[in-house]
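debug: dumping io for the single-chain case to check the tokenizer round-trip. Nothing else runs in this session.
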Amino acid sequence: MSLIICGVDEAGRGPLAGPVYAAAVILDERHPISGLNDSKKLSEKRRDRLALEIKQHATAWAIAEASVEEIDEINILRASLLAMRRAVEALQVRPHEVWVDGLHCPDTGLPSRAIVQGDSSVAAISAASILAKTARDTFMLSLHERYPQYGFDGHKGYPTAAHVAALKMHGVSDVHRKSFRPVRELLQEN
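debug: decoded output
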């Protein structure tokens, strides 16, 4: 029996708004997916195509999140690890090992390995990176429908000049992370 490895990554640690997403993926060796890479190195169109292929051919995959409230309550690192743990726990197949992009591993009760730049070097982590990013981007587009004044469809909640200007003009919404400095400073001014 071969070792079942689950790749895990998150998307959305840096934005000022929206939840942080994580995905866990167990790839099927019989269905290799070509073109997997760190989601940030792929075009949106390519990510979307690969996300469909991953969902179709992976042995198992799951996407989870940690809310804005959880981020503000426990901090972004712990919220990212919480989302990762939720994604691993949601898998329909139990992996033998969890390989995570970055420096930290979620507490899953399984043997785990943190791999710096794993999203560029390990196919299962790349796949997780793609699923987390596409799921979060889709959610941010839905937030744009509710809050068009912030321009979430363009910057996806990241602290761009346009986003910070919109925050100053329209104030802080309930989907903004109040513990993040630009948002916190605006709240302190008012």
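debug: round-trip ok. The CA atoms of residues 1 and 96 lie 11 Å apart.
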